[in-house]
Amino acid sequence: MDVGTLLVFALAATQMWLEVASRAYTDDFSGFHDHEHWPGYGLVCLRCVLAVVFLAGSRVALAEAEMRDPEAARFLRQLRVVGASWLLAFPFLVVTAGLVPAMSRHRYVAGGCVLLQSGGLIGLGYLCVASERFLALSTVAPKSASAAGNVLGGRGIAGKIAVD
């Protein structure tokens, strides 16, 4: 076990602890996205910290890629935008929920999370499955293969899971 593994377990434990602590403020599961209490704000802060760590790490990786591989740098720039958008979608919704009437806040945060985070995940999926840049940089297939061939071909997703 290294520091990264411990960090992942600590983040998972913190997330679960904050989720359980938020149950003290409502016993109705439909209040899952009601974050108007300290555990909810803790979840927002946790997501913002993860976004800062992601952006800092991607800046270092991007600086390295710009010197060595312009294709990788282009992919990392797109990944940075999609990843940061996904990480910051939840905090944005919780912070802006105060502008929505109290009766509609739960629907605003829950529905907004579904829409914004799904959009971010679709963008990430596009970058990693359909994008020629990712497939050219990845170990899924040789650089000369087409994107559709990489995903649907013999090595495809199974090869991706096994190799990367």
Give an overview of the whole structure:
The protein is mainly alpha-helical and 164 residues long. Helix content is 76%, strand content 0%. The chain is built from 7 helices and no strands. The chain has helices at 3-22, 38-68, 70-96, 105-130, 132-137, 147-152, 156-163. α1 (3-22) packs antiparallel against α2, α2 packs antiparallel against α3 (70-96) and α3 (70-96) runs antiparallel to α4 (105-130). The radius of gyration is 19 Å and the shape is globular.
Helix-strand blueprint:
Elements lengths: L2 H20 L15 H31 L1 H27 L8 H26 L1 H6 L9 H6 L3 H8 L1
Helix pairs in contact: 1-2, 2-3, 3-4
Oligomeric status:
single chain
Tell me the span between the first and last alpha carbons: 19 Å
Taking all Cα atoms into account, the compactness measure Rg is 19 Å
What structural class should be given to the helix and strand makeup? mainly alpha
Largest sheet, strands/sense/barrel: none
Q: Please trace the helix and strand order, writing H or E for each element.
A: HHHHHHH
Instruction: Estimate the global geometry from the Cα principal axes.
Output: globular
The percentage of residues in β strands lies in under 5%
Instruction: Give me the number of helical elements.
Output: 7
**Average pLDDT:** 77
Low-confidence stretches: 146-164
Strand tally is 0
Helix content: over 70%
Short key terms for the protein model shown above:
164 residues; mainly alpha; 7 helices; globular; disordered C terminus
What would a concise description of this structure say?
The chain has 164 residues and is mainly alpha-helical.
